[in-house]
Each structure stands twice: as C-alpha cells, then as structure tokens.
Amino acid sequence: MRGKSVVILTGAGISAESGVRTFRDNDGLWENHRIEDVATPLAWYNDPVMVWRFYQARRNQMQEVEPNPAHLAIAEFQREHGNVTLITQNVDNLHERGGSESVIHMHGKLETLRCESSEESYVCMNLEHLSPDFVECSCCAEPSRMRPDIVWFGEMPMFMREIYEAVDNCDVFIVVGSSGHVYPAAGLVDVASQMGARTILVNLEEPMNAESFDEVHTGKAGEILPALVKTWLDEV
Ligand code: NAD
What is the pLDDT of residues 27-82, one digit of tens each? Predict the structure, then answer.
C-alpha cells in the first residue's frame, strides 16, 4: 500500500477485546439498555437522570480498560505508512491511548461534555465530573447543565465534510469492527467503492453490508489485524 491514501473506519468491535461491550450484543441491547432509552434526544428529554447515569458509567468504565493489539496495530500502521486517515464511530479514547493521533470521532467522545446552552465541548474527566450528579458548565454567566458529547440517533454525525473529502479521495478504505447498521457510517464503503477505492473489511463475522467489500477478513480484530497490517505495509 506504499504511496496510497488510506482511510480506516472503526466501530465498536475494535474495542470489544478491551472489554467494552459492542452496540448490538446477542440480546440486542447496549449494556442491558434498549438503544431508544439511552441514545436519543428524546430519551435525554424524558429521563435525563437515567441517560446521564448510563454515560457516566461508560465514562468511568473507559478509565478501567486498556487498548488492545488492534488499536496498537492501527497506530503502528499510521506511523509506518504515513498517509492514513482514522475515522471512528467509537466514543471511547482507546485509539488515542493506543498511540493514534488525529482521530476523527464522528459520533462524539465520552471524555468531553457539551454545554447545553453554548454547545461548547470540554474535556471533563476529573473526579468531580465522574459522579452520578449532573455537571454544570463554566462557560455561561448562569451555569448550564452539560450533556454527554455524543451523537445520538436522529442527530447529525460530526466532521462529515472532512470525512467525505477523505473517503472521496482515498485509494484504500478499510473497516474494522462495524456491523454496517448505523448510517451514514455504514454507507461510506459504497462511496469509497464508487470512487474506485479498494475496500477491505475486518470483522468478527460477516456483517449485513459484507457484499459491499472487495475483501473480507473474519476473526477477532486483536488477533488478525496485527498480521494484516504487516502485509499491508509490505505490499508495494
Ligand atoms: P456494532 O456494535 O453495531 O457492531 C460491532 C461489530 O463488531 C459487529 O458486527 C461484531 O460482529 C463485530 N465485532 C465484535 N467483536 C469483534 C472483535 N473482537 N473483532 C472484530 N469485530 C468484532 O458497532 P458499530 O457498527 O460501531 O455501531 C455502533 C454504534 O454504537 C456506534 O455509533 C458507536 O458510537 C456506539 N458504540 C461505541 C462503543 C465504543 O465507543 N467502544 C461501544 C458500543 C457502542
């Protein structure tokens, strides 16, 4: 892949081996919750305490888990190859902690909170930000409640202009650990294909959009990605 422009899109599957549950586990629930109850603006409106506590649990959990060999392999690929744009649907910070830089978080981040009035986001990971109580901003004259800095269902993903520009212009598009259910992320492979890119998937099982890819590698990302990265770096 030397000299080629590469885009990698990761999903919840890449963090599974770190102990972070994926979105659709076998029971169709996310950490025992229905998605509609925790990941929509309506849920936040109807039951902010429940939604807040759900994300506070995810934010606390993030401190206890570590990047796995798949995160490390991607960081190595970025360093050695030099022209890799990394887009993630994940809200955890395991790519950064695995050594990746310039990660595009299209669905937001757990480590930041967003002021509901000013819409400014701030890194809020001190002890006082991680309790079950709501956190107030320090940017408004009258402090406002902060919400999770997460893109919920029905909201617009972040950095879409930058993402389409990278995908439109890439030679190789690689997806790791994503079920192909959540749009627009799931449609990016079709954009890349239409632009003539080679498309590669690494996933535990064949996801619903598997036929959109030129190559499919099934298995645990932490087990198969390090070797795949070596072959990609050796390819001319
Ligand atoms: P998803 O949960 O819908 O799909 C995960 C995919 O990963 C599945 O196809 C599964 O087979 C595969 N998988 C599971 N373990 C794997 C492994 N060890 N190696 C490789 N693949 C594996 O995830 P999605 O497509 O990313 O969409 C879910 C949404 O949920 C995203 O928007 C994301 O923001 C959010 N989410 C994020 C996290 C996180 O930040 N870690 C966790 C759960 C959900």
Answer: 667 777 888 889 999 999 999 999 999 999 999 999 999 999 999 999 999 999 99
Q: What is the CATH number of domain 1-20+66-107+157-236?
A: 3.40.50.1220
Confirm whether 217 is a catalytic residue. no
CB-ligand 1 contact for 17 (6 Å cutoff)? yes
CATH class of 21-64+109-150: alpha beta
pTM for this predicted structure: 0.95
Best residue for ligand 1 mutational test, from 8, 15, 17, 22 (most atoms within 8 Å of Cβ): 22
Task: Name the strands in the sheet holding 146-150, side by side, starting at the edge strand that comes first in the sequence.
Answer: 121-123, 108-115, 146-150
Residue 169: φ, ψ to 5°: -110, 10
How far away, in angstroms, is 17 Cα from ligand 1 center? 11
**DSSP character at residue 156:** P
Give domain limits for the chain.
1-20+66-107+157-236, 21-64+109-150
From 33, 95, 107, 217, active-site residue = 107
Instruction: Grade residue 122 by pLDDT with cuts at 50, 70 and 90.
Output: very high
